[in-house]
Amino acid sequence: MTPSQPSSTQPELPTPDFAAQWSSARRLHPIYAELAREFVIDTPTCADLEAGVDSPGRESVEQAQKWLNDMDERVQVHQLRQFLQTSLVVEPDGLIALLQHFLAKASKSDSVRDKIDFLLVQYFSQGAPTDLDDNGADVAYVAQGLEPVLGKVDLKAPVWLNGLDRVLDSARRCRSLDELLHGGVLEQGRKAKAQAGDLFYLPIALVAFTRFGYLMRRVFFRLMLADLNRILDGLTELEEKGVETIDCRRAQFSAQEPIVRLRMICQSWKVMFQAEYSSGQPLRMLVDLRASVEGALGSGSAAEGQGIAAGAASAAGAPRAAAAVAHIAGGGKTSKPAEAQQASPARAAKAKAQFAAASAEAAEFDVAAAPQEWNPDAESQPGNKK
User: Fold this and answer.
1) Number of Cα atoms under 13 Å in the Cβ half of residue 13
2) Residue 147: CB partners within 8 Å, gap ≥ 6?
């Protein structure tokens, strides 16, 4: 049997649904316009989209699509994360619109994949009850929570997704945030996502990675709070010994940082960490501050000694970083060094913005993680059948 010959005429392309495209663009416009304003992204927009025209012409629809695609190229994952976790503009319906927009793209780059991954976790997290425990957040429960986005999902998971549970188990065994950040666990999770390739977009895979991201956030919360409690206990012990200041240069503070001020900042961080996880939180500072406190107590002197050179190199920028952290943590009401107390509100706002932008540069859970190989069982690799 010979294959049929192709027709001499070109197949007719489907007619674009301009009404659906325009409806989607109008839902996304307020979100993208606010993103452009917050991150100072200057790009020509569509006049009819700005005006909220109900039935525009084809040219306006195409211009709106071009504007959205341009914004997608220019808005980075960490910016979207920072915006959505600090803005009151986007409600669950807005997250759904964003997800539908990215999932509908014919070509999905790594950036699009990471945005989808974050948006799914963010959407599920916002709808999940506060008393949901880890055991309750199983695949079936997460799939149910994502139904408005993914519809009904076949819960039969391919074997290669089992590796995510092994990464979670490794994360739960970590005893500190430093161990989590440097133990290779985070790299294994990132590698799993990258190696999934196009299989990442299978509905069951999207559910599994959403569950993974949600539970990893919980691990972060627990370890961050444990580190904060350890720091506060250490500060109390130092005060009882009559110590008033400690060397915190490795954490981007000063060489003689007052314990009273450190306690106030940590208390403010503790309140902040009870909110939704944000990449803008100073994870690296928290880890280094714990090391500084333990060094002052004598339990981490060796590690502290290794960090002196790095601390001295960053000492010049320490006062500004410390003032910015204090301003963020205390909502602008924390005590500051003399230089910071003389700063104008505009200067304080600028310092806050600079710190938020700098600490948001790293991807979520991506703070100096040591490279480690993702090494699930051979039969569990994406694309391998069993």
Assistant:
1) 3
2) 153
pLDDT for 77-98, tens place per residue?
989 988 887 777 788 899 999 9
Q: Which range is most confident: 168-182, 194-208, 318-332, 333-347?
A: 194-208
* Residue 133 tokens, joined: 């425990």
Q: Are 239 and 259 in contact (CB under 8 A)?
A: yes
Task: Decide if 49 contacts 67 (C-beta within 8 A).
Answer: yes
Confirm if 99 and 116 have CB atoms less than 8 A apart. yes
Half-sphere exposure (CA, 13 Å, Cβ side) for 87? 22
CA dist 338 and 103 (Å) reads 51
Q: Is the Cβ–Cβ distance between 174 and 185 less than 8 Å?
A: yes
Q: What six digits make up the tokens of 351?
A: 């310092």
> What letter represents residue 84's amino acid?
L
CA gap 381, 308 in Å, rounded:
43
Give the span between the Cα atoms of 28 and 113, in whole angstroms: 18
Contact assessment for residue 90 and residue 99, using Cβ atoms and an 8 Å cutoff: no
Strand partners, 245: 258
pLDDT digits (tens, 9 = 90+) for 155-183: 999 999 999 999 999 999 999 888 888 88
